[in-house]
């Protein structure tokens, strides 16, 4: 069930009209600035336009309980199936990013997950660390997490920011270095597996819950990861089915060609069956994954993936969370069915450090 399915048809029309009015106002404001001899960026000019959605629309709004903020697209890995590719090097200024996070908190956000790209690349991880501190100390969010390939993380980052981080998820698709090379999850001669174990130990030392994310594809579909996962003992092992997104890892304008990585639903289920004894396994098929995540891009726009591509909303910095989220395509029912809300604060996990 998507957002529009719970909104009456007349309200849907009002939302569409509001969306069109916003676009018209944005274009008119920009043209006016041009003809006046003054040009202002669209974000600044749009903020002067007072276009609001009827209150009858927002009463059924979706709450941004858990948000994934991809604040950068830059990455030092070249994973062939990546579905959030490095199309731009843009990153919001820190103050603007904090303003957006505060808007999300005011609208009901409980968990923020920072991702990329590779989030530790920008400003050597300090930008990310400052956002983590802000979300935990200032906004007092119950859960702050990160997804990273792990290659850029240093121990001094844990020393400075680890106290405010609840969960660190490291992406690892194989425990065979040759397979990681084929996938593109590697950098030079560094061992991705050795680094994974090092970060696991740091998480234990600095009291950060450790998680592993794996994308199952044609190169690792026959691998048995049971012993390695049990040894690392993550709080969650999130297992994704390789997903195609037009314009990202599929299609004419894509930077990746992930078709050769795609596996069938049956193949994915066979992999899950092989690992059914792993207690921390959390499987996510394409059906569950596509519409059940609230994704913010580097401009703080929600990304709607319902049509197999990423269609951006307006930025929450321009129109606020309530209006932008209506165009996110978020399926809150599927979010809950896939176990999107769980014990995500390390204070509540009762882990033995």
How are the SSEs placed, and which strands pair?
Layout: H1 9-35, H2 42-46, H3 55-58, E1 66-70, H4 94-106, E2 111-115, H5 126-138, E3 143-148, H6 155-161, E4 167-171, H7 177-183, H8 192-205, E5 209-216, H9 226-232, E6 236-241, H10 265-274, E7 281-284, H11 286-290, E8 294-296, E9 301-304, E10 311-315, H12 316-319, H13 321-324, H14 332-337, H15 346-349
Parallel strand pairs: 1-2, 1-8, 2-3, 3-4, 4-5, 5-6, 6-7
Antiparallel strand pairs: 9-10
Helix pairs in contact: 4-5
Task: Describe what this molecule looks like in 3D.
- α9 links the parallel β5 and β6 (236-241).
- An 8-stranded parallel sheet has the order 7-6-5-4-3-2-1-8. The chain has a two-stranded antiparallel ribbon with strand order 9-10.
- With 353 residues, the chain is α/β, with parallel strands linked by helices.
- It contains 15 helices and 10 strands.
Question: What brief labels describe this structure?
Answer:
two-stranded antiparallel ribbon; TIM Barrel; single chain; eight-stranded parallel β-sheet; 15 helices; 353 residues
Number of strands: 10
CATH superfamily of the largest domain: Aldolase class I
Given the structure, what is the number of helices?
15
Sheet/helix structural class: alpha/beta
- Radius of gyration over alpha carbons? 21 Å
